[in-house]
Design goal:
The chain has 241 residues and is α+β, with helices and mostly antiparallel strands. Helix content is 23%, strand content 23%. The chain has 3 helices and 7 strands, in the order H-E-E-H-E-E-H-E-E-E.
Length: 241
């Protein structure tokens, strides 16, 4: 039986499982960082830590940490099936509007698509240097830590959720059902997908909250098979009186 060990400090991206593990590792840190920087919880409720050889913030609340751990595990399970093209952390206004105000998007549509039986199969060619990806993660976290100055302020008492988007393949089906942790996103955060080959030329209809009113790039990360784009969209609700 094939075995797999992942070291987040010196990741060797020699197979698809390693690529997904690296993404899950980064996503966990990024969620904590965004919640801290955007003041979703009091900053005093976060502790100072280190990851990727740089200072980071981590929530001290057990339920917040458990939610992040569970949702990242659910994303990783779908990533290993090669079903996702992006993951986004969406910050919503407080009730009654609950409108999406910010959408931090992690696009992984350039990740390779491999059969489930080959997620541990080594890629051809030499993997990138082990220090390359943590260095890029460090730069991305640093960018997230200074991004608030470029974004409009959020109102108090905002909430947040994690949204995933499927690859545009007719073989991919939403992982919805009573035995899954996923529910359908609100219509404004969805896009129409083609249902059959006859629809291949039809342009997808974008939900009204996709794209936002203003987009700010964060960083592109590329190391071997790990290719990710990251940006934040500010929703129209932030700019409405």
């Amino acid at each position: 039986m094939a075995t797999y060990t992942y070291n987040s400090d010196t990741p060797v991206l020699d197979n698809y499982h390693a690529v997904v593990s690296a993404f899950s590792d980064f996503l966990t840190v990024a969620i904590h960082t965004i919640l801290y920087e955007r003041n979703i919880y009091p900053q005093s409720s976060f502790l100072a830590a280190r990851k990727f050889n740089c200072p980071v913030r981590q929530s001290r609340h057990p339920k917040v940490c458990q939610w992040i751990q569970d949702v990242v595990a659910a994303v990783e399970a779908e990533m290993l099936k090669c079903t996702l093209s992006s993951t986004s952390l969406v910050i919503h206004a407080p009730p009654p509007s609950s409108a999406p105000l910010e959408r931090f998007l992690f696009s992984t549509k350039a990740f390779p698509s491999v059969p489930s039986s080959e997620i541990l199969t080594p890629f051809t060619g030499n993997p990138p240097p082990a220090a390359d990806l943590p260095e890029q993660f460090r730069a991305t976290i640093s960018r997230l830590s200074t991004l608030s100055s470029a974004l409009n302020a959020l109102p108090p008492d905002c909430s947040f959720t994690l949204v995933t988007e499927l690859r545009d393949d007719i073989e991919v089906h939403p992982p919805l059902g009573p035995d899954t942790p996923w529910i359908a996103a609100e219509p404004g955060l969805q896009k129409q997908r083609k249902r059959n080959e006859a629809d291949a030329q039809r342009e997808f209809m974008r939900g009204k909250d996709l794209g936002g009113a203003r987009t700010t790039p964060i960083r592109n990360v590329e190391s071997g098979a790990f290719v990710m784009e990251m940006w934040v969209e500010e929703g129209k609700g932030k700019f409405e009186e």
